[in-house]
Amino acid sequence: MNNNRRRNFRPRSQKNSFRRRGGSLSSTTTNGLSNGNVNFNRNGLSNNIHSVEKTMQKYQQLAKDAQSNGDPILAQNYLQHADHYLRRYNELNERRENISEKTVASEKTLQKDEAEEKENQISSN
């Protein structure tokens, strides 16, 4: 083993992009004021209905455990977290139902248009 040998320093090829998420370097300015939250990207956790539900259940279980251990303040804290995820879960459910209703309505409209088109073709012949 050659422990006395020093390794040569190799600089990183894009040092400035380390752990940076997508987006531009500068934030959008409005009236000369910069808004640092413009380029904020979520990692998608709060948009996945299954992970939101799982997180909500986790906090509910933590609240039950804290209550059984005799810590009502911690239990209340966990219940507030669970309530937040419950509201997010309901919001995602509502959005999903609205999208499915729009899809069903557009499919019915397409079917109706196709039926009218066929009737027009039959009557024109």
Give an overview of the whole structure.
The structure is a single chain. By secondary structure, the chain is mainly α. The chain has a domain at 43-124. Helix content is 58%, strand content 3%. It contains two helices and two strands; from the N terminus they run ββαα. It has helices at residues 49-68, 72-124; strands spanning 29-30, 33-34. It has a two-stranded antiparallel sheet. β1 (29-30) and β2 form a beta hairpin. The longest helix is centred in the last third of the chain and has 53 residues, at 72-124. The model has no long low-confidence stretch (mean pLDDT 78).
Radius of gyration using CA atoms only: 28 Å
Q: Sketch the topology as an H/E string, one letter per element.
A: EEHH
Overall geometry: flat
Structural class call reads: mainly alpha
What is the distance, rounded to the nearest whole angstrom, between the alpha carbons of the first and last residues?
Answer: 92 Å
Query: How many helices?
Result: 2
In what range is the share of β-strand residues? Answer: under 5%
Low-confidence stretches: none
Residues in helices, as a percent range: 55-70%
* Biggest beta sheet summary: 2 strands, antiparallel
What's the number of extended β-strand segments? 2
Mean pLDDT score: 78
Record the strand order, biggest sheet. Answer: 1-2
